[in-house]
Amino acid sequence: MTVDGRTIRLRLAYEGTRYSGWQTQPGRTTVQGTLAAAIHSVSGEDVLPKGSSRTDAGVHALDQVVAFTTTGNLDAATWMRALNARLPTDITVLEAVQVEQGFDPVVAAVRKRYRYRIHDAAWRPVLQRHLVWHWRGRLDHGRMREAAAALVGEHDFTSFETTPSTRLSKVRTIHDLVVSRHSGPDDAADAEVWIEVEGNGFLHNMVRIIAGSLVMVGAGRRQAEWLGQALEARSRPAAGPTAPPQGLVLVSIQLAAERPPRT
User: Fold this and answer.
1) CATH architecture entry for 110-257
2) 252: nearest Cα among 53, 30, 50
3) What is the pLDDT of residues 113-161, one digit of tens each?
4) What confidence category does residue 226 fall into, taking pLDDT thresholds of 50, 70 and 90?
5) Which residues are catalytic?
6) Which of the four pLDDT bands, split at 50, 70 and 90, describes residue 258?
């Protein structure tokens, strides 16, 4: 029996190295376009799946939430198997469930968490080069952590958005901002600095500009209090550079229905 208007929600992981971001673009290979082609190969439908986050070119994801509507009779489990059989090896479906019609992954996303990885050891990260930013020189992650505290909370983040911008409101809330050291992929102790940011939403390149600004502090080029001053300036030139895309990964997306009940 054909089911009319069946909405399928996916959770995707992908390495963004060879993609021009999530959103489909004429003449370019994108994650959205590649997924749309896989959906067409399964059901013959021309469907453009909608994602919670429009990751940029070269940015990765461990948990992108996507939804599309199909008029076919395949259940969610079959969609997961069929799509994974057709998607390239740098994209995978982690989960597929049927949800209510009208589900919008953008509206449903209440929190997003991103991680930015910086490799600051003396050697180049050969096997992980597409997943980290290699910084030549040891970073002071303690100073970076001190500076990061100024960004937690609800603020106008104009200084941390690529210009020009069409967004009317620059106000966003950062719930958590953690700077910590981690071992590298070869188990070398303290080879990487990780910046993890969780918020209710992000402006264009906001996380990468935060990362680039924190690196300026960690490298000793700016004082820790400078980051708060850059925030208050509400001007893009006041903040630091935009970190390169390959170090950024979308770690998780929390949906409204998944919020824990109040106690």
Assistant:
1) 2-Layer Sandwich (3.30)
2) 53
3) 999 999 999 888 888 899 999 999 999 999 999 999 999 999 999 999 9
4) very high
5) 56
6) low
The domains of the chain are located at 6-103, 110-257
Q: Which CATH architecture has domain 6-103?
A: 2-Layer Sandwich (3.30)
Which token pair is 156?
């106008």
Residue whose C-alpha is closest to residue 158's, from 206, 222, 208, 87: 206
CA distance 82 to 258: 27
Q: How far apart are CA 117 and CA 194, in angstroms?
A: 5
Please tell me the distance from the alpha carbon of residue 144 to that of residue 222, in angstroms, as a whole number.
10
| CB-count burial class (<10 Å; 0-12, 13-18, 19+) for 208 | buried
Which of 35, 33, 21, 22 shows the shortest CA–CA distance to 82? 35
Does this chain's domain 6-103 share its CATH topology with 110-257? yes
Sign of the alpha-carbon dihedral angle for 164, 148, 198, 139: positive
Average pLDDT across the chain, whole number: 93
- The model's pLDDT over 20-73, given as tens digits with 9 standing for 90+, comes to 999 999 999 999 999 999 999 999 999 999 999 999 999 999 999 999 999 999
Alpha helices in the chain (DSSP H): 31-43, 76-86, 105-108, 141-148, 206-218, 226-233
